[in-house]
Amino acid sequence: MVDIATRVYNHKWKVDTIVHSLLDTDFYKLLMCQSVYRNKPDTTVTFSLINRTKSIRLAELIDEGELREQLDHIRTLRLSRGESTFLRGNTFYGKRQMFRPDFMEWFEGLQLPPYHLEKHDGQYELTFEGKWPEVMMWEIPALAVLMELRSRAVLRTMGRFELQVLYARAMTKLWEKIEKLRQIDGLKLADFGTRRRHSFLWQDWAVQALLEGMEGKFIGTSNCLIAMRREVEAIGTNAHELPMVYSALTNSDAELAQAPYQVLADWHEEHDGNLRIMLPDTYGTEGFLARAPEWLAKWTGIRIDSGDPATGAETAIRWWRARGEDPREKLVIFSDGLDVDKIAELHGQFAGRVKVSFGWGTMLTNDFRGLAPNDGLAPFSVVCKAIAANGRPTVKLSDNPNKAMGPVDEIARYKRVFQVGKQAAMDVVV
Amino acid sequence: MVDIATRVYNHKWKVDTIVHSLLDTDFYKLLMCQSVYRNKPDTTVTFSLINRTKSIRLAELIDEGELREQLDHIRTLRLSRGESTFLRGNTFYGKRQMFRPDFMEWFEGLQLPPYHLEKHDGQYELTFEGKWPEVMMWEIPALAVLMELRSRAVLRTMGRFELQVLYARAMTKLWEKIEKLRQIDGLKLADFGTRRRHSFLWQDWAVQALLEGMEGKFIGTSNCLIAMRREVEAIGTNAHELPMVYSALTNSDAELAQAPYQVLADWHEEHDGNLRIMLPDTYGTEGFLARAPEWLAKWTGIRIDSGDPATGAETAIRWWRARGEDPREKLVIFSDGLDVDKIAELHGQFAGRVKVSFGWGTMLTNDFRGLAPNDGLAPFSVVCKAIAANGRPTVKLSDNPNKAMGPVDEIARYKRVFQVGKQAAMDVVV
């Protein structure tokens, strides 16, 4: 018998909102936001959505009105009392009161700033401009909205049983991955899949599946809301936007060369232990490590986010040894382009030589490859990056030239300043 | 745990369609349609929606786009193979092959004709013009759509728990009615509530509740689709549109005076037994019976659809006696403005004196009075009537002057021709 009230409730929705909370974002955004709020609160920054998979014509798939509804809805969100209590009271990385009272007060009053949306050549041009601490909070929800609206556009064409089978297959697929991964002794793995998830509910399901299936090898999620709801650790430290914006703000090549270290000096002030994880690839890992100040070798670990991950890890190991550090005491977090085989391979290569951990993203929360007609639900590569700071363009090089971004002449200048030589190009899948 | 496939299915609906079948209509429409298809197939008729409850400003409550989507969807409907098999193979009123093969063939090809929709003074002007057999099939789905869109407009403002409580209360209310009604010995009652139902699902629930609760006193439903699905009798005979259109087509007062009897003469040709039920009130019951031909007194029964029902029934009883008929052998069907108390009262007054049956409508399928804020879900009085035939206006007088419709001069002429004297005005609630 039909439950009429539930039936009416389910179908009366005008807008099925995607992001329901300001905490539905990656934890490192909050850590970085607090740092920015302290160190660079008045910097004007522009974030921009960039769909690197040009074959997916988002503006043709996704209705502009629907997109605006979702973005407008996000602008109505405020940190709720319970969310604030969680941030103020919870232990993050073993530390209480990770978030300072002045930051929390600011966060409680935060409304995300306006967005600017245009269509161009089948793609959306979505930009956010304003004070850095405010604008930066758009990145993850904007990506999640784009990803989920694209999923919905495809799901809309599918029948009820197709949907049942789709999710049954997706669940089976993920569960089989978990069954393989849990056989790896000593594995430590976190969910890093918020930004490219198939949908919120799917990420939430994935976290619950990991929690049940990974037998303690699942260490947490980058998603702050899911961490709160499922009572797991919130995971994350810092990202490229910090060196990108710090660098854009410099006034000379000499200042520029120091900017990535200035970021970490500010971070050093604020955090210790497992939060002292450097992300060395923004302007090339080799050069970054070669020129790094002594104190950085004391940091807890490194995150490898572009280029060949094994090469990056070997580079770090050599560097630690050269600086008199014991790599076995150091943490290497792999977070780029991971799936089961790559995780197993990297774990086999590095476990014991360093402490290893994995931030598993897209292939955890959006591996719908082969599950929909015309592979319409396969994940794709969309990012939302700081492209300008105080009117100056930002640059990212990374260890993969296919991930480089910024004006051509500035890229050339950054390559010169950071002494980046020839880089191996790798396909960017997701 | 959320069933993601079901969740996605529930919320991806662009249009939650209201009418899903050409059989989601009253059974008498099909009987009348077959009669019209045989006797007056080329008559051009205009049907028009009339909201008698002016305080309900439908065009402000209901979005025009949503209304058009629902009406457009109805135009995509065709009789399905299973539905055709049901109509061809089922027994209706104890008779097989009620629907002739030529009619069925026509019905299988039927697409409802275009509609014309305008807004005026907070109301919708919704008209249908075309061949009578096609246009007449719009009446019930058009009404059902208007009623349910109005329900939805109000339901949309309610929260999940409000909805649970709303339907819990509505179910309780209806069940209590059933508990009272089933205590009436010998009661025979049918669902006549399609046109003013709260929603399709609610009517379907009401029929199932009657089926379980009425202990054999529930004899069927006017809704052809629900009759098919729930395997109960489809109930209904004929309605005012037949004498209204027949009358409009006449060329003299003398022809006009005979038109209502011509309708029943055509019906007499086609049907016998329990389908020979006359509806005498179109131009006043008193005069209709007084001037009726002898053969009409032999008919099985009468349906009382306006005016004071007890008065109407007493008039019929006197008339049968005067014509030498035994009223105890005759069937009186009450179908106007019924609820539990009125049903009990009429049953008490007439059971034994005549065979009594009830066609329970709005207060069965839409008694949401007092259940929503500002009584926003209380039923209201909307009809969809034939207003013109071959370019001439139709007229209805009925036994309640508040239900009269047509141009003023034509009403006066009809009153003269049918010798209608003073009538008692009664409020039209639903």
TrEMBL record, chains A, B:
InterPro entries in the cross-refs: N/Namide_PRibTrfase, NAPRTase_N, Nic_PRibTrfase, Nic_PRibTrfase-Fam, Nicotinate_pribotase-like_C
What is the recorded name of this protein?
A: Nicotinate phosphoribosyltransferase
- Name the protein family: Belongs to the NAPRTase family.
**What Enzyme Commission number(s) does the record list for this chain?**
6.3.4.21
Name the SUPFAM superfamilies on file. Nicotinate/Quinolinate PRTase C-terminal domain-like, Nicotinate/Quinolinate PRTase N-terminal domain-like
Source species of the chain: Pseudotabrizicola alkalilacus
Tell me a GO biological process for this protein: NAD+ biosynthetic process via the salvage pathway
One GO CC annotation, please? cytosol
Pfam families (alphabetical): NAPRTase (PF04095), NAPRTase_N (PF17767)
Nicotinate/nicotinamide phosphoribosyltransferase domain location is 188-421
Coiled-coil intervals in this record?
none
Nicotinate phosphoribosyltransferase N-terminal domain residues = 23-146
Is Cytoplasm among this UniProt entry's keywords? no
